[in-house]
Specification:
By secondary structure, the chain is α+β, with helices and mostly antiparallel strands. Helix content is about 25%, strand content about 35%. It has helices at about 80-90, 110-120, 185-190, 195-205, 235-245, 265-275, 295-305; strands spanning about 5-10, 15-20, 25-30, 40-45, 50-55, 60, 65-70, 75, 95-100, 120-130, 130-135, 140, 145-150, 155-160, 170-175, 190-195, 215-220, 220-225, 255-260, 280-285. Bound molecules: zinc ion (ZN).
Length: about 300
Amino acid sequence: MSILNQKTIKKSIKFVGIGLHSGKKVEMILLPAQPNTGIIFKRSDLKNHNLVYTSIFNVSKSSYCTKLSNDHGVTVSTVEHLMAALYGLGIDNLLVELNSEELPILDGSAKNFVEKIEKIGFKISDQPIRVIKINKKITYVDNEKFITFEPNKISLEIDFEIKYKQNSILNQRNKKNIYMDNLKDIYYSRTFCLFEDVEKLKKMGLAQGGSLKNAIVLRGNEILNDEKLRNSKEFVNHKILDCLGDIYLAGYRMVGKITSSQGGHNVTNQGLRELFSNNDNFTIVELKEKNIPHSFLVKNTLKYIA
Ligand SMILES: [Zn+2]
C-alpha cells in the first residue's frame, strides 16, 4: 500500500482536559474516518447543526487562538495544535468529537496528540493524497507583520521569525522543512505569554484555563515555570506549530515556501484567504509516486514504518 495514500487512525483515541480560554472541562474523541472525509469537528454536546468543517473561510476568530464556526454559529476553538499534529503525522481523514466549545489544551503543545496517535497507529486507504501546490508568490502585510507563500519543488518550508522589544529571549528565528526534518521540537513546544498580559487576557474572558501547566509565562526574560525550555527555540518553534495547524485548515497539505515575520493566527489566515482568492495562485495536485523524488519516498516510508 502506498505511503502516499490517505490515512486515518487505527482506533479511536480519547483526550480529557480543559480549554485554555474557556477554562471548561472537555472530553475529545478522535475517530477514524473514510477516505476523502477530511478533518471534521462534531460538537457532541449539541443535537443540531453540530458539525464544523475545517476551512480557512470558517475561521471566525484568530486572536490568541483559531476558532472555527459553521453557518449556525456553532464553534470550536483552539484547533491549531491538534491540526498541526495531524498535518505532521499525515492524517488526512478524521472525525473529532468534543463535548464543549474548546479543544483540551493539555500541556500547551502538540506532544500528547502526537504521542497518542503514533501509539495507536495509522490506517492507510487505497485513495491517493492531494496537495496544494503554490504557483505564485503571495504576500500579506499587516504593519510590521507579514507572511509570504512562494512556489517550491516538493517540500514545505516554514521560515518564521519573532521579535519583541522588551523580551529579548523571545527574539528567535527558525526554519523547518516539514516533510524532511524531525518535527519533535515543533510538536513539543508550548504556547507562551507575557506575565503582564495575564491579567489583561483574563479580564477579556480569555485564558480562563491558563496556568503554568499549559503555557510558558515570561516576566521580563525570566521563565516562571518550573519546567524550563524544552528546546532552545521553543518560542518560535511554537509559532511554527501554530502556523502549520492554521495552514492545514486549507484542507490539504501544501507544497511551497512560507516566510513569516511576527505573524500569528490572523496573519496566516489572511494570507491564506489572499492565496485562495484567485485560482491561478495554486493547484490541487493528486500525488503519484512516480512524480516524487526518491529521497522523499525513502524518508517518509521510514517515518511510517518506524
Ligand atoms: Zn499555539
